[in-house]
Automatic annotation (TrEMBL):
Gene3D superfamilies, per the entry: Glucose-6-phosphate isomerase like protein, domain 1, Glutamine Phosphoribosylpyrophosphate, subunit 1, domain 1
UniProt protein name: Glutamine--fructose-6-phosphate aminotransferase [isomerizing]
PROSITE patterns in alphabetical order: GATASE_TYPE_2, SIS
Enzymatic reactions: D-fructose 6-phosphate + L-glutamine = D-glucosamine 6-phosphate + L-glutamate
Keywords on record: Aminotransferase, Cytoplasm, Glutamine amidotransferase, Repeat, Transferase
Domain SIS: start-end pairs: 288-428, 461-606
A GO cellular component annotation in the UniProt record: cytosol
Keyword Cytoplasm: yes
EC number, UniProt record: 2.6.1.16
Short name of one Pfam family: GATase_6
GO molecular function, one term: glutamine-fructose-6-phosphate transaminase (isomerizing) activity
Any Gene Ontology biological process: UDP-N-acetylglucosamine metabolic process
Residue ranges occupied by any Glutamine amidotransferase type-2 domain in the UniProt entry: 2-229
Amino acid sequence: MCGIVGYVGEKQALEVVVSGLRRLEYRGYDSAGVAVIADGRLEVRKKAGKLVNLETLLGEDPLPQSTTGIGHTRWATHGGPTDRNAHPHVSEDQQVAVIHNGIIENFAELRDELQAAGVHLSSETDTEVVAHLLSKAIPAAGFDLVEAMRAVCRRLEGAFTLLAVDPRQPDLVVGARRNSPLVVGLGKGENFLASDVAAFVEYTRDALELGQDQIVALTSGEVVVIDFDGNPAEVRPFTIDWDASAAEKGGHDLFMLKEIAEQPKAVADSLRGRIGQDGHLQLDEMRLADADLRAVSKVVVIACGTAAHAGMVAKYAVEHWTRIPVEVELASEFRYRDPIVGPDTLVIAISQSGETMDTLMALRHAKAQGARTLAICNTVGSTIPREADAVVYTYAGPEIAVASTKAFLTQIIASYLVGLYLAQVRGTMFADEIRAIMDDLNDMPQKVDLVLDTVEPVRAIAREFANAPSVLFIGRHVGFPVALEGALKLKELAYMHAEGFAAGELKHGPIALIEDGVPVVVIMPSPRGRAVLHDKMISAIQEVRARGAVIIAIAEEGDEKIVAFSDHVIRVPIVPTLMQPLVSTVPLQVFACEMATAKGHDVDQPRNLAKSVTVE
Ligand code: M6R
């Protein structure tokens, strides 16, 4: 949602903070703002719109030199994306500046209390109350911002990462976190705070994970972490295993194009080192005992958006390999429907960011019911893997474009690894069967590469349909979640009506949407897999074609039968049935990206969205 950066050190704080915001802009781009401490006073600049607007303002109205600063890029929740609602928010006495990510649920009550005490609030945000509360708490806290933050945090409900500065303690940035991300970057003579390590990875790869309900006091020489009660808190150091160039566009015009192109490597990295010397599958971060895994009677996958689609793909494979029933549930629905989970349920939370609030809350709910929990996550140091009993990282490298691409493929890989591991531990597959599937998986980087080499014609097809009022996607078996994913990509990037359907469902209602010229993207199953599925898809094509649909088929090399039933055929390499989503999704990513580009949209930062959704 919002991106947050804080810096204390020897460099010019503004440069560090703005460069951090540039890397965090994927988290929100409704407005941006900075505050620095210079000559014993606060200096704030903020502006609605993307970071570039703030940079223009900073050019027109420069800030004085300073080595202590904070910055924010916003995804609006309370109050529209205006200059007034942009962060930082400052107390009436101009002594405290605050930035925030999250939602303060009891803000209305706190606002009423402040207004009753005569405080004038100048924005519609929930954040502003914190600035005023801190300012009131500071004298009682002996003019110590850390103590004041502790007192205020104990009054706040909801989710928040807060950073605050006060010119009376000019070399200090104070941070606090509950249910929202905040990591510390450890430098030499300088330290950093940010929502995501991307903000400071160009300066240091040494970082600290903060826990729940912790407060951090950051000076140039020291990082002190305490809990909300003032006790020293435990933190986990970690090393960032990628460098700043991984978060750059690397010669591509768009982060999304770069991330699409990186998929062969991302898949390879997710698979690396998974076979031990004894030839068995090993998952180093699997902290669940074999006995617990043997006792599992049900798997429930919780996730949102693209990650949920990856979970849907995984269901087909994991049930097939383990014979354990797998349910896939949108995390936002899970905890509000009294789900049946217990100690023999394995709940798998899939999340690229590791910070998605719906998924985090669902995970906590599952834990509270006694379930075993496992996170499939891309972001080391994030909350979901920290809170789950076990984790399998996807090692896809930073994903900056709002639309998930390499995360999807690597989430499928990681879920497959978990499925195979369960099969190994429970003895539902022979070791040679598992190795054969690992061999198939290990072929996938090269197959995805092949798709990328031959994907060019997709762009022309995308441009041809750029003005279509609607695009439908249909698939069967593992092609069904791929259809959903293709439609999601198109909605979020091209802002057009797109729906994914199970092909068999068409005749139960959605076929009424078909009229002359409607493009229907068909994810064809392999004729070599279950031939009956291929035949059924051809029937579905016939039904929509008879009503005027234009067919764009994604079909494997050598499937000649499809040609007579399609207007366009996009070829993907031959792979085993369960591996098909790893190749057939890629043209759909390119399709959506190209269509959005043709329509002149901002592909990396689509409207109304943010990369990691840290509110429920
Ligand atoms: O970080 P997460 O994987 O938990 O994010 C989940 C969804 O918000 C995310 O996949 C979203 O649907 C993507 N923008 C889709 O491209």
